[in-house]
Design goal:
By secondary structure, this protein is α/β, with parallel strands linked by helices. The longest helix has 17 residues.
Length: about 400
């Protein structure tokens, strides 16, 4: 297979959470353990930092990677989902894995994948671990996909674990309360391994304290431990807590030497050194165009708060979602006086625009519906005057189609 055929096979032949939701969520780690054994335990051949959380884990991973790259280390970075190119998930010193690496890995191991019915995410995690091992990285920064305890990345024994925060997202898998979700995320806490908690929440912090104590894992609350407010090229106000988590995680590394000046410089070069997109990205001016991948109540609350700090005459919002989100909670924080352009990203899990429109009508919001993200985006740009603001968001998959 060529690269396009390989990617098609990965996406279409096997379950993938982004496309099918619950069909790809697996109840145990047996298969990823078996895969790692088949691949000669690649995840045991490099040190790692393991990052979980409801929001901010991707940004935190990229910050950590940028700092370590600045300090001169060879850094692997695994994150998900990607925006436009599958290879964004697996990076070495900020550069995407090559198409040939993807082709070769799938071609070599395809019979095993098919025989063992590996999920998309399991195969991708195996690919990342194998690539980082073969490239002899000094350290890898690994983002949890979903939850923590049962996530395929949780075969790692990292140098440091990080949990950014907890919100009510993916409740069909992780639980219906903050405490239940915290319990799942805390599954990445390992014995005698320091754990960084990015944000104090009264419902969840006792959960982390208890599990850390059970594992003799030193626990650090980043918001109390890190006082420096180093600038970063990531513009969202919500990046403050992610920045604290990244700094604390790097400072806890025992086998790596990173100076304060390298931390500061690394934070200033996150986008250029790691390729991160979709976090309060300004795509244009006159009108100002901003996109952000925030896709749940907690994330969108922070984004909407920052939008209110912007100066504009009128707000245009290009908005789409996926079918497992609570629209009541999300619509409760959306501005009432904006013009909405509802759309559905091109995935099977997309929330139908008719559902979004019906909710908008209940709340007497001004809205239109469109067949595609790009049509909605073009309409917003056509209608927006130079002194107005266009925001694109609601889902990673909406942003992926325009950024």
């Amino acid at each position: 297979m060529n690269y396009a055929q390989t990617i098609d096979w990965l996406f279409e032949k096997l379950p993938m959470y982004q496309r099918q939701g619950a069909a790809s969520y697996k109840p145990n780690l047996d298969r990823i353990h078996d895969l790692c054994e088949y691949l000669s335990q690649p995840h045991k051949k490099f040190p790692s930092i393991h990052v979980a959380g409801t929001n901010g884990k991707g940004s935190t991973c990229h910050m950590i990677a940028s700092i370590l790259q600045t300090a001169g280390y060879k850094v692997g970075l695994y994150t998900s989902p990607h925006l436009q190119d599958f290879r964004e998930r697996i990076r070495l010193d900020g550069k995407k894995i090559s198409k040939q690496n993807v082709i070769d890995f799938v071609a070599q191991h395809q019979p095993y994948f098919e025989t063992h019915q590996m999920s998309f995410f399991e195969m991708t995690v195996g690919m990342a671990f194998d690539f980082f091992s073969n490239q002899s990285v000094d350290i890898a920064v690994i983002e949890v996909g979903l939850g923590g305890r049962l996530d395929a990345t949780n075969v790692l024994t990292p140098e440091v674990s990080v949990i950014t925060n907890i919100g009510l997202d993916h409740t069909q898998f992780l639980g219906n309360s903050l405490e239940e979700i915290a319990q799942e995320k805390a599954g990445i806490i390992k014995k005698n391994t320091p754990v960084v908690i990015g944000e104090f929440q009264k419902e969840t912090f006792p959960v982390f304290q208890k599990i850390a104590h059970q594992n003799n894992a030193p626990l650090f609350l980043a918001s109390e431990s890190v006082s420096e407010n180093f600038p970063t090229d990531l513009q969202g106000n919500y990046q403050l807590k992610n920045r604290q988590s990244a700094i604390q995680a790097v400072r806890l590394l025992r086998q790596f030497t990173v100076s304060e000046s390298q931390i500061k410089l690394g934070l200033q070069q996150v986008v250029s050194q790691t390729g991160l997109k979709g976090r309060w990205s300004v795509l244009g001016h006159s009108p100002k165009i901003i996109c952000d991948v925030a896709h749940n109540y907690e994330g969108l609350s922070l984004v909407m708060s920052q939008i209110r700090e912007e100066s504009f005459e009128r707000l245009h919002i290009v908005f789409g979602s996926v079918s497992d989100k609570s629209l009541d909670r999300i619509f409760s924080i959306l501005p009432k006086d904006a013009q909405y352009y509802f759309c559905a990203p091109a995935i099977s899990r997309a929330m139908p625009v008719s559902v979004l429109e019906r909710k908008a009508q209940e709340l007497d919001l001004s809205s239109q519906t469109f067949e595609s993200v790009i049509e909605a985006y073009r309409s917003a740009l056509h209608n927006a005057l130079p002194n107005e603001l266009v925001f694109v968001g609601g889902s990673t998959f909406v942003v992926a189609e325009i950024d």
